[in-house]
Amino acid sequence: MKATTQFICSQCGYVSSKWLGRCPDCGSWNSFTEEKIEDKKTVSKDSLQYSSTALSDVPYETEFRFESGISELDRVLGGGIVRASSVLVGGEPGIGKSTLLLQVVAGCASRRKVLYVSGEESASQVRQRAERLGLDLGSINIFCDTKLEKILSVIKAEKPQIAVIDSLQTLATDELSSVAGSVTQIRNCCMEIVSLCKAVGTSVFFIGHVTKEGTLAGPKIIEHMVDTVLYFEQASMGVRLIRAAKNRFGSVDEIGIFTMTSEGLEGVKDPASFFISERKEATLPPGIAYTAITEGTRTFLVEIQALIVEAKSGYSRVYSDKIDSSRVLRVCAILERHAGIRLTDKDIYVNVAGGIRVNEVSVELALALALWSAYSETNLPAKMVSFGELSLAGEVRPVNYGDRRLKAASEMGFDKAMVPASMTFEKNNILLKRCQKVRDAFTMKG
Ligand SMILES: [Zn+2]
After folding, report:
1. How many domains does the chain have?
2. Ligand 1 geometric centre to CA of 31 (Å)
3. Can you tell me the distance from the alpha carbon of 400 to that of 408, in angstroms, rounded to the nearest whole number?
4. CA distance 283 to 103
5. Is residue 202 domain-shared with residue 252, that is, in the same domain?
6. How far is the CA of 15 from the centre of ligand 1 (A)?
7. Residues spanned by the domain of 13
């Protein structure tokens, strides 16, 4: 007998004929849901008539990009919203995705035709939310439904310049019998909306909830169908970051930083110092070191914190969310071997103030300084920044953007920097301490 159902991983879309506890493709646990094997209803293709166009007859696009009115979002998009592009905005429920996109349509509505499609909230709920945020309701059009066919007909008839679909997981087409939120429904509905929006020149934003449970399929399964993929992250209380995971029209290095206020999400105007707290003392408490990180075109100062205590379980453990634990372990091993610090019987906690994730290799020297300062209870100078990569041989290796990092530090009133010995810099007013070996960083007087 032919199987009528299959099991699909709700995180990555992997298909299996039987239920699996763990997905062999993406490694998720309990992510398989049973879905019907669907045959799309056949439509007669004979009546369809299409023709091609001479490339030389194709008109120039008068406007390729336009601003969303929210500069932090425009930066992450690569300089504004691209006409007829498709953008996936993913994140955990309640993080601010709908709020931000409601702000976008409100900000654009005076100049452009906008459409907000809500399958999550009723029209009056959306109105109340928009009024709470103090948005101009003026010419925002709303359509509340979850049926793909109805949504397509509204887009086709009204040809908005911006459409928001809130959310992906509520969409369903009558052509398929699977429930809304299943992998099959999400894929089909997304594909149809993207292709219609391309044809009529609508820039479409899909809101996709990232959920831990496997019952709703995640936004990951449509990443390949859209032009740009943005993900919301919560940094610290009230602070939201937006990063691009994919961008056909720009780089994926830029981040957008927002604070959550009663008027919605507000872009942070002076991000360079946003992640460090003001300190009046001349030295820092033990375990704290500053570094300068780069995200796209911008440079931020961040505070690395380390705490070292006796191990509770008899062997060493590392607790670090914002810097990869394997990087912390590697730096600890380098310190044990090349700086004579014994960490094997310690529990090590590492954090980044403000909650920003730091993936840059340049953080290693500052991380080593924070760990060493915590271990030896040494106070580092308050106005000192450090950056550099560490080799397993204990050398301090050069990193990119040295001048940018020093400039940002100097603008923040920093006057000292620990840097890799082999790097050269433009003229600046920062006192440089050059380190060949990681050990040098601990022997120099601050
Ligand atoms: Zn999977």
Report:
1. 3
2. 7
3. 14
4. 43
5. yes
6. 9
7. 1-37
